[in-house]
């Protein structure tokens, strides 16, 4: 791989002017082992990235499509449904594809149809797709050519519940109550996401069911080796970045607080991007980092696990870089050394 | 009662310079059937209310104690533990006492000791205390002389779960995940509640157990006629006012979405301060009002009920006025006509 | 007038689903002497107001146009340029017209063309238009049939600088530095006003010149009887409601702090909606009220006057009701009794 | 110097648990040429830095005093008045002292007394003190042993007005209207800085005069070679980090927009931490960086210059590192490479 041969890894970012894509660009511009070789944007093509996106340090001209023959990897932050239209071509041209969006997360085309309302645009690729779980299933990433990042909520819920599921300490029915910053909705104009509509306000949405729920169920079932059901309700809160996923799991008979904590320590003690903390972390502590803070507590019959991360960082851009690092054998923390800054 | 005799009800507010007490003062100053006759504050006595509290329209001088012999009712917003020291005197002087704080919410002195860390200061009064539930148990209020308001979180959880519990539609084990504005912590100096510490951040707290949990358990058990357990986790969110309590209840066999909705409609259709809504309401819609917006949905095995209110309004000051209205036979909405203002 | 004859004043609101228009509707629904008889919206016609706008208490069906023959007054909160197209008809039908937007603020059609980039749509009406200054020129309102409200920034700047100009205490060259909440931009979708773009951020805009500047210059020149120049820079701040206009004026020789304060007291002491305060007020104190808080201080050669108001209240909706009250001889505070609520 | 000899520069941070001090620690921990050898805190001594300050990566134990004999430089973020008590000792022990606070900014002990209300604690050191102006007077820093950083507001105002003053393009009387985030008040408990008091609110303070005003006047007079007067009003805005200083200067006869812009380009084109921009920047763009964005515009008779920076970054911690780099001949951008991240 180029990272070991001395040459830099050549990476293209498709969908480079949304929050997630631009975040990838900014991180990769400062990555010691990566060269950003192309930035794609259909709506802004012809302009330079730094003339379009505030604070960008990338002076490349945006192109409507990326040419995967000229790079080692494509990070796609295209809108849902669009990566699936291009991924086949990118793969055929020899690039590894990492999709930040939702196109390759669900293995079952029927589940995709049920949750997205239309047939999957490229069902023939689903068998090649791997959901990236860098702490819980790093081997799954190693040889993969088509990698899907879990959604921002799913990342939090899986990191929170995975160790308990893998150790069979909890019943396979979980409540995930998540609080998110508003940037998860992206940068497109929307009167419902105006500052004046959202400040000083919290609200639940998608209470009858959100698309990240089947992702959580699929992955927890895989990790736990039994069928998991998830009840998931996201809430919009008046902050830009951050997710707090509070997960309520029923302890199985015989499983207690210390046993559970030991299981989490065993799973995460060597993980550079997961911090086990005694008190639930404030979400701002994770802001602009790739860190996920996890706290484990027992209240009544429930194990309560809080996972805290930056929805645009560990929930999107920096997780993409983490997976890129893992996939190409680069240092796991390369380009991701940003420490918390308070306040 | 004076309200029916033409004279105004004479009300004293103890603890009148905190957020909850000052809110009571401001509402009562505009109440057509009430005269504010005393405002108490130990820390600020000797100054006029409007010289102490921003925007106050009350020019009375603050006194260290209130003289219950000169009024029909005392609304106490004293800090926890202090109302219990004065309530006996107030009652002996013939006033009705309404406590916004926590001193008279738990019936069992042992539970009080367990959750508050010391013996109850006035256990002999606990038998006289009634937890005010104006929609779910209005008769309980009518003859009472010592009324306790449920806590802000408890008010939301009880309004959310009460109808299902009373109709025996759910298992008696509930998860309450609440999101609150920061004003619930009051106005005293605290570096943890500085703007710089809280903005752009959400965090869970009291994950091992919060004092409002036993209130919820006591009241839901009473309403449901069976022992309810509650797992309750509050979250601090970057807004000043508002609570969203998202409650997860397991439906009993045979109970479905429409049956549940019918139970809620039956309970609340005539209630002026509870609005059943199709979509979970944004908390800002309740801001500065006495309204509680409730939405009822089913996801998987769970009934998900969201209760949305203003923690300083329906969660404290305006609920105190609502209970005062109910107790003294005044119009239920007197002084509480404020409609939502958006944005 | 109907207000004196016992019948209620019949008012139509055009543009009733934007922030300013819906604010007028909500205030008028609770006004003791007004009946809202029509609510207009081109984009939402056919739906009921309360099904379109959060928290509305108005169940009228929205109509694409308002019929001025059926009402005594039309409050127009139509977008800039649209009221001018309808005002002639409304006036011909006998209604008094109050325009919240900018169409009738500038007397000079050439100035309108210079600042708005096109010819005025109804220049023949400009002679009839009166800019409403309820505290500084109440007589101007009394017989007027076509009333323009000053812009939100202009209202603050005029209330701040007017008394000094009228008393000839300052040089006729003013710096107005204003900070506004984001709701001034309205409710239409705009990626630049997303929460994620605006929170944790302040920025100046229109630094080369903003359309409210010629309004300020026109009115201050009229009030002062000499040509005033204004340098005006607005700033977008991360709050929903509120304006703080900090005005820097050079004191004329012989004019000192006490002389200036006396002039402000003389002008405002009987004004129910202007509060002279010792310390500059926090903008939240004015939120959801019609109040303007004004503080007067001297620093070096400058008189520094801060005017603080709610851009959607005194800067738009509630000022429209204040002008309506003045114009129709109703009680000045009718429908506008809302007192500050803190926090 | 150690930086050139291969050894790392040994730096102590006094006052390491406030926002400014902890920011210095976090930046220096990642600085390639610096070793943090001591962290001081009187209130928290005996605890490790990372156990006291959220997100800290520094595991050193806090000591009540720092031992300047063991380091090359002391960065002091002690509260006002305290650095002056220790600086003499630190200097005698051979360390270079950089004070983030206000003790050594004013040259004139009488001015210090007038603005701070007491005599200067160490007037004998004032002659040795140099106010650090890394872009406008880098030579001043080079041999200095006692360096004072300008205040956060002063830094913005000086960077905004300095080039015009140095080029004699403006009259020597300036209006500086600044908007700041709340973190400038520090981390100590204060009910006036609670989230609930500050959110959704902007207010002016210190309208009669703020301590940063004489700093601005002293430095602009020095740079311009004539006596400058400043009228300065700061405003508290609902954000954590950020300053926007909007400066109004009267152009001298013959000075126009292009001439002014040329002067700013000449001064800043090689400066790595000053970005000249066409539109006034949103303050969030500077957040967590050392950048100052400056825009230059003309409106009427005024030159309007906006300077935008992070009050805890370029206004405190990262400016301290910038000055350290300059003083010790390290790369100017070492440890300060953080690029903007949006949103």
Topology:
Four copies of one chain form a homotetramer.
Chain A (H helix, E strand, L loop, with lengths): L1 H4 L3 E6 L4 H11 L4 E7 L8 H4 L9 E2 L9 E4 L6 H10 L3 E4 L9 H8 L12 E3 L6 H5 L3 E3 L3 H15 L3 E11 L14 H4 L4 E2 L7 H13 L4 E8 L6 E9 L5 H12 L5 E3 L15 E8 L2 E8 L3 H15 L16
Parallel strand pairs in A: 1-2, 1-4, 2-3, 4-5, 5-7, 6-7, 8-10, 12-13
Antiparallel strand pairs in A: 8-11, 9-10, 11-14, 13-14
TL;DR of this structure?
Four copies of one chain form a homotetramer. The first copy, chain A, is an alpha/beta fold and 343 residues long. Chain A contains eleven helices and 14 strands.
Q: Could you tell me which chain pair has the largest interface and how many residues each side has? A: A-B, 52 and 52 residues
What characteristic shape of chain A results from the CA principal axes?
globular
Oligomer: homotetramer
Listing every helix as H and every strand as E from the N terminus to the C terminus, the arrangement of chain A reads: HEHEHEEHEHEHEHEHEHEEHEEEH
**DSSP strand tally of chain A:** 14
């Amino acid at each position: 791989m180029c990272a070991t041969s001395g040459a830099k890894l050549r990476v293209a970012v498709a969908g480079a002017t949304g929050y997630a894509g631009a975040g990838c660009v900014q991180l990769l511009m400062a990555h010691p082992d990566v060269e950003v070789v192309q930035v794609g944007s259909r709506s802004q093509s012809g302009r330079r990235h730094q003339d379009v996106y505030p604070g960008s340090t990338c002076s490349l001209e945006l192109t409507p499509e990326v040419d995967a023959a000229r790079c080692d990897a494509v990070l796609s932050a295209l809108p849902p449904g669009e990566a699936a239209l291009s991924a086949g071509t990118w793969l055929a041209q020899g690039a590894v594809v990492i999709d930040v969006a939702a196109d390759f997360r669900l293995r079952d085309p029927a589940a995709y149809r049920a949750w997205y309302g239309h047939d999957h645009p490229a069902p023939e690729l689903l068998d090649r797709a791997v959901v990236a779980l860098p702490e819980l299933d790093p081997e799954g990433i190693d040889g993969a050519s088509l990698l899907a990042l879990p959604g921002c909520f799913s990342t939090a819920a899986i990191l929170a519940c995975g160790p308990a599921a893998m150790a069979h300490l909890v019943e396979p029915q979980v409540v995930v109550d998540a609080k998110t910053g508003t940037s998860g909705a992206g940068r497109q104009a929307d009167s419902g996401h105006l500052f004046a509509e959202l400040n000083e306000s919290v609200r639940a949405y998608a209470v009858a069911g959100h698309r990240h729920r089947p992702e959580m169920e699929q992955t927890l079932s895989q990790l736990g080796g039994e069928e998991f059901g998830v009840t998931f309700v996201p809430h919009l809160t008046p902050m830009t970045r951050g997710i707090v996923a509070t997960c309520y799991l029923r302890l199985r008979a015989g499983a207690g607080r210390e046993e559970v904590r030991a299981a989490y320590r065993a799973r995460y003690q060597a993980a550079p991007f997961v911090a086990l903390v005694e008190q639930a972390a404030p979400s701002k502590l994770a802001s602009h980092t790739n860190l996920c803070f996890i706290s484990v507590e027992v209240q009544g019959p429930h194990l309560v696990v809080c996972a805290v991360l930056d929805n645009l960082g560990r929930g999107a851009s920096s997780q993409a870089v983490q997976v890129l690092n893992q996939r190409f054998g680069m240092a796991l923390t390369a380009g991701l050394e940003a420490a918390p800054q308070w306040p």
